[in-house]
Amino acid sequence: MGPTAKVALIAAMVALVCAVQLLEREFAAARAGVRREREAAEAPVAALLRPLEDPPLPEVPLETGVVPEEETVSGGGGGSGGGGERTYVVAAGDTLAKIAKRFLGKESEWRAIYKRNRAAIPDPARLRVGTPLRIPAPRNARAAREAPRELTGRTGVGYNASGPP
User: Three-state DSSP class for 86?
Assistant: First the structure.
């Protein structure tokens, strides 16, 4: 191989190295663009999946369950059950349907509790332990007789869906 061929071969190798470097830069820029697009597409999903901010909770008694009789709210119940409205403090495991079954006799009456407590219950599917709820009077006499006066166990801690403490 002559000297001219060697120089041409070296020039071709230099050209290939330069072309490879240019391609690497282009690929890096394309990868960065794809990464930015992916992050931008995931941002709304991440915003939906982040935990909700908790508003400050009102001060409530330490015990959960029905507030003692002297603290019940009297007044226009929601029917002719004979008793007035009462206050209940949400315990762990409670749902509006369970509370309605306990106090109003039917799980389907949960909407009456929700309507009475919209300000305290932003999401009816997620109750916060310790939230005081106003329970309307039962609509029928049988539910009024069967409604519990107090739901505390031996330790004084509220009865919840997982059973007595």
Answer: strand
